[in-house]
Amino acid sequence: MPRMEGRRGRFGALNAGQITREPNMSISARLIELGIVLPQPAAAVANYVPFVRTGTLLHISGQLSNDASGGLKGVVGEDVSPDQAQAGARLCGINLLAQINAALDGDLDRVVRIVKLGGFVQAGPGFHAIPAVINGCSDLMVEVFGDKGRHARSAVGVYQLPLGFAVEVDAVVEVA
After folding, report:
1. CB neighbour list of residue 103: distance below 8 Å, 6 or more residues apart
2. 29 in any annotated domain
3. Which letter does DSSP use for residue 32 in this model?
4. Cys-Cys with 103: which of 51, 68, 118, 143 at CB 3.0–4.6 Å?
5. CA–CA distance, 153 with 24 (Å, rounded to integer)
6. DSSP string of 71-107, one letter each residue
7. CB 162 within 8 A of CB 126
8. Residue 22's pLDDT is what?
9. What would the pLDDT profile of 82-126 be if each residue is shown by its tens digit?
10. How many CA atoms lie within 13 A of 84 on its CB side?
């Protein structure tokens, strides 16, 4: 089975321009190859829904850097390192995949394209490597979906995120 190719850049991120994926491999097989087990999708914690589909676009609400162990909380550049924050952004990506999977009744092969990611980092004063943190999620989308995972993106540093989490990412996905 072909393996992912890519070089590690600053903060250990794969350089997305050098990543390849076997085009005929199912997404579920790709997740197994990557060692990724999707968690139960997170329930909404306020007055919103986890995802909305309109036409061929699926809008996924912001997913936090959360996992079964409690996830990654704190201020990046103060009590959270850039490497930890990038891993937190990857957790956000895994949570996005879980929501996409739920919205598509378990069939991630229906993803046509990851259109856009919106990344938010709870950043301390003087921390400016926001794009490098969000690469943790961006790289994951390309690792999983290949060229269909390449996307437009915003990466924003913020004062606070819900429940004290370090990173949050939302997504727009084109689906069949």
Report:
1. 50, 51, 53, 58, 60, 175
2. yes
3. H
4. 51
5. 26
6. --BS-BTTTB-HHHHHHHHHHHHHHHHHHHHHHTTT-
7. no
8. 63
9. 999 999 999 999 999 999 999 999 999 999 999 999 999 999 999
10. 16
* Domain harbouring 159, CATH code: 3.30.1330.40
Token readout for 110 is 């229906």
The first and second tokens of residue 32, run together, are 């197994």
d(CA 135, CA 88): 10
Structurally, the chain folds into a number of domains equal to 1
Which token pair is 78? 């103060």
Percentage of residues in the chain with pLDDT exceeding 70?
87
Which structural domain range is residue 97 located in? 10-42+50-175
The residue type found at 155 is A
The answer to the question of residue 91 being in a domain is yes
Which among 7-11, 12-16, 97-101 has the top mean pLDDT?
97-101
Nearest Cα to Cα of residue 119 among 78, 80, 151: 151
Q: What are phi and psi of 42, to 5 degrees?
A: -70, 140
User: What is the sign of the dihedral through the CA atoms of 76, 130, 171 and 32?
Assistant: negative
Tokens at residue 151, please?
A: 């996307």
The tokens describing 134, both together, are: 């969000």
Rg (CA), the chain: 15
| pLDDT reading at 19 higher than 60 | no
